[in-house]
Amino acid sequence: MTSCGAFYKERKRSKVKQAKQVMAETQKPELQQFKGQPRLPKFIAPKRYDLKLRPDLFACKFTGTVDIDIDVTAETRFIVLNAADLSIDDGSVCFKTRQSDKEVYHPSEVILVEEDEILVLAFDGFLPIGEGILGIGFSGTLNDQMKGFYRSTYEHNGEKKNMAVTQFEPADARRCFPCWDEPAIKATFKIALEVPSELIALSNMPVIQEKLDGQLKMVSFQESPIMSTYLVAVVVGLFDYIEDLTLNGTKVRVYCQIGKTNQGKFALDVAVRTLDLYENYFSMPYSLPKLDMIAIPDFAFGAMENYGLVTYRETALLYDDQHSAAANKQRVAIVVAHELAHQWFGNLVTMEWWTHLWLNEGFATWVSYLATDCLFPEWKIWTQFLDQTTQGLRLDGLAESHAIEVEINHAHEIDEIFDAISYKKGASVIRMLQSYLGAECFQRSLASYIERYAFSNAKTEDLWTVLEEESGEPVTMLMNSWTKQKGYPVVTVKINDNNLEFEQSQFLSSGLLGDGQWIVPITLCGGSYVTRKNFLLQTKSDRLEISELVGSSNEILTEEWNQGEGDEKIPECFWYKINVDQTGFYRVKYDDQLTAGLRYAIEARCLSATDKFGILDDSYALCMACKQTFSSLLSLMDAYREELDYTVLSCLITICSEIANIAADATPESSGDIKQFFINLLQFPAGKLGWQPNSGESHLDALLRGELLTALALFGHDITLTEAVRRFYTFVDDRNTSQLPPDTRKAAYVAVMQTVTTSNRSGYESLLKVYRETDLSQEKVRILSSLASCPDPDIVLEALNFLLSSEVRSQDVVHGLAGISREGRESAWRWLKDNWDHILKTWGSGFLIARFISAIVSPFCSNKKAEEVEEFFASRMKPSIARTLKQSIERVWINAKWVQSIKSEKCLGEVAKELAHRKY
Ligand code: BES
Ligand code: ZN
């Protein structure tokens, strides 16, 4: 435990005592009414905060004062606001009326209610209705928990230093200063910071004055427009910056560690162009005078959209020409575009309550793809968006999922909903709606929504109302079916005589039946996309007459078929693809005849990448739910043997890796053949790309190369392994060699780890050496995410222990948990149990704790294991892990059931053998 941590703990303990004591002493039964409430009482509204903070970076403490202009709207003897982990200077608390400064009220009691994170100021008499100023002095600790007001560390000229940073979303502004900490309680902020004179102090607004006072300076910032508390931000430390201007003249800066400004150029360029784009798209100028973006070495999330001062993890902001990979570049663009989208959607128009969080996050996610597509059309980012949809579908296929709109009754419950449902399902249903209403209508509606609710708050239904007004479509009814219930449908499509029959039912990965029903925007195409049909499936089932559809495209279909394959008969080439371009958030199950047609269409290259992705991913999901045989999935995968599209192959690779894990348990005798089949599938595109970038090659080829080589290394492809290891050692000797371009490094690291054993550790040691010597976070992450892929369980254990060492920042530990080898699963589980107390202590207060469970538990595939996990956690349950734990255990049940189903499949061995030996 660091000195800061120790101090923090000590202080917390004494404060608990203090708070309890006061609670016991207080005689006021009226106080009970404020306890256990999800929201603050409404009889007082803050209008303006005058906040002064003095961080002490050596002692890791801070003191502060806040003067809050408040409006008392009903007679009361209490002021109730939020505060947590703060020491309130009781004597400093006073309320003055606006009318005359002489009327000063001091509370008779100052009560911190720890469990509700509220501060109750009790006065002997009623406070007068009208405006007044509430003054409070307080102090706290710059904690190590990456939330509230915290310290992050960095090195400057070989010396370890602290910086002070805030992270307030969702509900941690109250850990920095007493405030009305709810998104709908907006006010203006006038902030001043007293800091050592050599440091840079930043906040949401530009500096208006710096006053030097010996070794210290008082930095005052311009007053902000009205905003929510969770968007207030402060950063103090040593930084360099670069800057640029938008077309409108807004100054944009990227701040980073001294000497790293070169790495900020890409993000700066993206930010300036994205701001221009959003001003245009939302028909509304950026609302603040400046925008700063800053890289923070210790950061809980990827980034945070604080108004005018966006904070980032280094990996999400910095891009190094020499050592960053194409995937890193894309991540920077997406994250910047996401956070800047929030400046409108979130900061200017804010969700009314956390129930509508998805509106912020789902929307920012969707818009970030829109912006990235405009800036980098060659990245085909909308095709890549399918990865988001798929992850949303995977989580939402669990019985333990939740609706997009969730009731939130306590601050602790908010963390849990920052998940794939809010972000990925949220973004996907927005995309579904946009594609239903049309891009122009959608944009027009958004602009009017932003205008109507600027500097205010909105609920989900407010957005639907505006869209409904603009489009004349039943948006509220349609969207309620997607945001107010969990899950999604699988649409079963059959040919019956001259009809296409559609039937919806809830899809669950467990294969069980759910009873949800949706309004499903069905889109259909066939025959080189000439045949098109869209309709809303509003009931359980519906039908379409084929003759109506075929009429327009029959000829074209026949022609194309004849050109491709000679003069075979027609039936197979009657292909219909439902959910065109995968814009709908649902899965499709086709009957045998339609499936055969689609297989033909894939092999005859009639389909777009998005549609090929959808067919593969739906088939995989249906197979997992035991609705389709494993052999038929394998044989469908074989149709992708000449695939070259990045997103489709990336999906194929994910599926291959997950199947390899399951197959090893379900059918050990065939698992060699299955792996060989996967190697065969991937070798065709890998052979085309090789190891070295071709001159002028596309971003997508660079992405693809990395993923293909990594997968081949993991499947044990000898040639890839040998080549990877050779290139790795060239790189170890010369970090600037061109032999191991950044896009291929992860593959080489994973390959090296496949060769490491307890008696041959040199590859592991070399990787750690590279880890220790690099100062690029992305390089460190690449290495961390490779270590546990080793097939030797003892090395996996060592790698996991390394994660807990002081050499790994606590923010990075999740990367090390990714990709644990199948052989290392058991040691990882034992490690989790052995270290649970420590893990809980270190990560328990944030959302990273849940990742330990999902990464280690979910890959198991036996009922016995699921029971063992349940048993272990039965006495260790915490609200912050409850949902993830249930979801992870459900996944284990699903895997176990799938394993049983595969075991019972006849002829699987022959199918696998056939595929493994097929020459392409
Ligand atoms: N508002 C979030 C950050 C956040 C997440 C705050 C959870 C509090 C709790 C931010 O806009 C965000 O969504 N960040 C993402 C990156 C984004 C590109 C998906 C993140 O941190 O992963
Ligand atoms: Zn966000």
Short recap of the structure:
The chain is α+β, with helices and mostly antiparallel strands and 920 residues long. The strands form seven sheets. It has an eight-stranded mixed sheet. The longest helix has 25 residues, at 879-903.
Observed structural traits:
single chain; 920 residues; Immunoglobulin-like; Neutral Protease, domain 2; 5 domains; globular; disordered N terminus; binds ligand BES; binds zinc ion
Question: Could you walk me through the main structural features you see in this protein, from its secondary elements to its overall organization?
Answer:
The chain has 920 residues and is α+β, with helices and mostly antiparallel strands. The chain folds into five domains: 5-151 and 160-228, tricorn interacting facor f3 domain (Immunoglobulin-like); 239-344, Neutral Protease Domain 2 (Neutral Protease, domain 2); 346-483, Neutral Protease, domain 2 (Orthogonal Bundle); 489-603, Immunoglobulin-like (Sandwich), CATH 2.60.40.1910; 835-905, no CATH class. Helix content is 44%, strand content 21%. It has an eight-stranded mixed beta sheet with strand order 5-4-8-2-1-11-14-13. A five-stranded mixed beta sheet has the order 16-17-18-20-19, with helices on one face. The model is unreliable at 1-25 and 551-572 (pLDDT under 50). Zinc ion binds at residues 305, 338, 342, 361, 364.
